[in-house]
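Researcher: Re-running this chain for the archive, since the previous output was lost when a drive failed. Same request as before.
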Amino acid sequence: MPTLILVRHGQSQWNLENRFTGWWDVDLTEKGVGEAIAAGQLLAQKGVLPTVSFTSVQTRAIKTLHLALEACGRLWIPETKDWRLNERHYGGLTGLNKAETAEKHGAEQVKIWRRSFDTPPPELEAGSAFDLAGDERYAGIPIPTTESLKLTIERVLPYWESDILPVLARGETVLISAHGNSLRALVKHLSNISDDDITGLEIPTGEPIVYRFDDSMTPGERRYLKDI
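Model: Regenerated structure tokens:
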């Protein structure tokens, strides 16, 4: 039975500091490392062992993948990294403390930027300290200047359809280690969640989510692995 495992990366340094991270590359905290290892241990404990893996090109997701795979004895499986699984780009909010941003712009405006389906934050200015134009991992890639969840979905879903779904259809057990918003994009699609309802969905760090697919590649109920 084709099985999909989704894991949001463990706590990152900017998660801890309550800053908007987006495409900026930050590392895991000690707690985040522990969350990633625990996710892999749970995979082993439940006997849900991935055979193929996908992740973004961001350190926190890649490290989470490797730590989880090591913990369940699966470091050897095929691994694909792709920028289309990156976190949503937070534009001009990148690097800002969320509480301070709410004080400056008002809590309601920040809530709209964070949680609305199709309203992106202000664009990141060219030459900003967080401008990724010189980052070689994005050479030749159209780097966004900001993204709403809607825009994030518009890059994640085509990649899902073209690269991940065909692998899953072979009967593989696929592990995707990614980010809160790129995973929300997938969950919205797989669980048929409305534009309004997806704004309230949180994906917790380091807790594997499992979908099992039937012969027609229709996903079953979304379940946390700890509850299976």
